Amino acid sequence: MCRINLNKNRFTCWLLGCLLFPFLTLASDPICIRDQAGNPIRHAYVKIGSDKVVPVDSTGSFELPDNLEVDQLIEVFAMGFDARQISVKEISELSSLRLTEKIGQMGEVVVAATRTDRSVEDLPMPVTVISREQIQETGGMRLSEVLREQTGLQVVSDHGAGIQMQGLSSDYILILLDGEPLIGRTAGTFDLDRISVANIERIEVLRGPSSAIYGSEAMAGVINIITKSGRERFEASLESRYRSFSTMDLSGEVSINQNDWSVQAYLNRYRTDGFDLNPDVPGNTQAPFQATTGQVKLGKKSGNWEFRLYSRMYREDSDNVLQIIENGKERLADMSSERRDLNFNPTVTYRPNEHWQLTLRSMTSFFETHSLTEMQEDGIVVDAQDFQQRYHRTELQLDRQLGKNQLLTLGMGHLLETVDATRYEDLNRFDAGYLFLQHQWNPTDRWNIVTGVRGDLHSQYGERISPKISGMYKFSEKFSWQASLGAGFKAPDFRQLLLNFNNASAGYYVFGANLVQEGIERLQSQGLVQQLLLDPSQFGALQAESSLAINTGFRWKFSNDLLLQGNFFQNNISNLIETAPFARLTSGQNAFSYFNVSRVRTQGIELDGTWRLTSNLQVSAGYMYLYANDLDVLEQIDSGALFRKDSENRTQRVGRSDYGGLFNRSRHSGNLKISYQEPLSGINLALRAIHRGKFGFGDVNGNLILDDPSEYARAMTSWNLSLSKTFSNGILLETGGFNLLNRLNQYEPSNPGRTLFVGAKVPFHQLVNTK
Amino acid sequence: MNKWNMLPAGILLLALSTSCEENTVEEPEIELQAVTVENLHAPGDLMDRSTGEITEVRPFRYFSLEDNQMVESREGDWDIGFKGTTLIVNSGSSGPGTAQASVVTGTFDEISTVPSAADFKSDGENGLAIPTGSGNGWYNYNPSSHIISPIPGRVLLIQTNEGNYAKMEILSYYQDNPPLAEVDPRTTPSPYFTFRYLIQPNGTITF
Known about the structure:
The complex is a heterodimer. Chain A is mostly beta strands. Chain A is 8% helix and 55% strand. In chain A, a hairpin with a 6-residue loop joins strand 5 and strand 6 (84-87). Chain B has two domains: 1-31; 32-200, no CATH class.
């Protein structure tokens, strides 16, 4: 089978058009192709002999031609399922034939890696797909609750629920919604709690800077959230979950597909009381908040043209109480904050023939936050912060199929970004242009190669060229090895460029790199500068952070029911941006700015195994070993220049074996998942144990690095269970809980302890159909 | 080749260390003892946190390393003074004396002699001999936990008013020298300096 093609479904039709014997005479008994749950597979097709291909009809059925030999073998295919070979004699005695789903989401289509439809098993990059069923099984409401159960992904609280991948934090991970970037980060973190999961069809996770399609932010990887699209003429459903801490999630969805038009509307409402891990201190650990998400997707097909307009809105309001200590007196303040997010994403696709495809897409986003802190007694405003970001991107993509085994993709785009915030001066604008070229090639059946290069030109940090190459060799149908090498980068963010901050009480200043020259001149004219600590010619020249990464690993399909996967990764990051003092002030304090100072290396191994013991029982396990170091710290240790304080506060020298690497990274993490369908009652059970090994939470012995046993938060395992039952009319009932053993860790402020839930889903269109 | 060179070097080192031991046996009275000073209370100026203006100026607390005791007045024979996180020496803009200081990197025990690179300074208009500010002189300030912690590996070398050299390590800014993990800046009283020092009374640069 040819694996590279512009559009899987269309290609299949074209293939069928070419190969279908026009004068087949058909036998009378239809045979239905079904999945293990008994649902018809409507995209299956049947290959008879070497040149005849018969598609199934809209009920998943096909009829055998009556002029076949009884011992002739026929093959049944369907994307996402293992192919099945059967003799004519055997199949003619059946009324339905069941196919088994490919294990471990191997058959799922992935868009994010190459911007073309490819299945997981054919991609030479480390890619995983989280399917609708897995999302459902977690019982989660927000995206963080789904991602935290995946091997190699860690949800870390830092100005919101951020994701950590391959040891790199949220700053370095691009989050896409239906292929378009989402904006709005706080201190670099994209808060995953902004995304509701009820309308997610699948989530693609691409590790490392392996794809040439993406620029800044995709240094550690890409997470692409694909929302549902209706397949039936009419669908409507209502879904609700309720759980501990008065948390409620309610979603409604309607979709209509008719006359090549499609309309899909989704509305979600979420509220929670939050929780409090430190009842002695006023205020909640997690503030109570309400959020509303709305999404409308419009689509129209017309001949060779396809038009789409996706739009999404999000708003969130939260309130909390804060304790402020002023001159030794404790006072309470009310803090309220809101977030707004709005985006429009129109796309036009033109496909003149099966060799060419042209896509023009754009994304316009608005993101803003407002927060206000007022004293409870007298209403005096302690702090008021506003942040507004506008983002617009236009991109043209051209795909050209070269013969059967090569696909060339050329893309170019422009992006415009503005930001206006309380802590930044003026309205700031950035412009960027980019170009990418990607070549997908199957030189032989065994080799699969994707090469690409992306060039970025940015008004702030100049140009960057990021080449990538990935290759996979199939030793057999069962075992393949892949390797990918890529350069990635991350542009300095707004804060690093634009911040203008003065802490009056502590007396220090922080200037973004763009303002440092101006800031130092102002401080000098005020006579506040005692000594410059750095050469002023270095000021303001902030480079993008850059990385070179390798990912290499295997997929071993031991049998149709046992899959093992492994990936080794290493990310070498240089020019890491950090704050450093650049001037000593007469007050004795420092003025800080952002500089390219450190080098970091993260490396490790991710292993995954999935074993289907019976058609009702599946066990999977995942493990990640991670080693993440600051290379400059290692150098200092080796030269004997790093010290720490012992329990009596005396200085000791730090050795290599004392160093625990970067904070907030667990050396070991993993998961174990058991999914079982009880045959009599039809109840689905999903039991998961999610383990996070000990990790450093912060410095306590004074040398700012992780090197002391007291600097570690202890390991924790969360046991999560979901039970669900789908009735024949489509109604789904579910119950379960997270963290059933109620394990708490003060260094994980996103973990509220044991949480129990109930939920229901009512598909109205199925209720109407069954009547 | 390297291996052969290593061997005689090792033997030489062994010979040297034995001869040192012999010296200490002969003259035990020369062995210097480090002194630990506990809970020197030196509150800083009072400040209005919203404006950064100082509302009440407090005096420095003066200490004589030679006599291991507090000195009442600025005009007295003191070597080092404390107020909040600021450390001064008795010279230049800070006092009438001639004391100087230099900040070096190493462990207290390993510094056996005043390094030739040590840059001794008096306090002056261009800054204090022991620089102020987080990360510059003797301490780090953690803006998220608000903890003041002595920088590990920073040793203060002080030439006293009398001209003798002393090495000094600040152990803690908090009362009773607690391990840093037990410090809560809201409840642990500060500034209470605990430090250890060792003085060479014979005027030489070896400790």
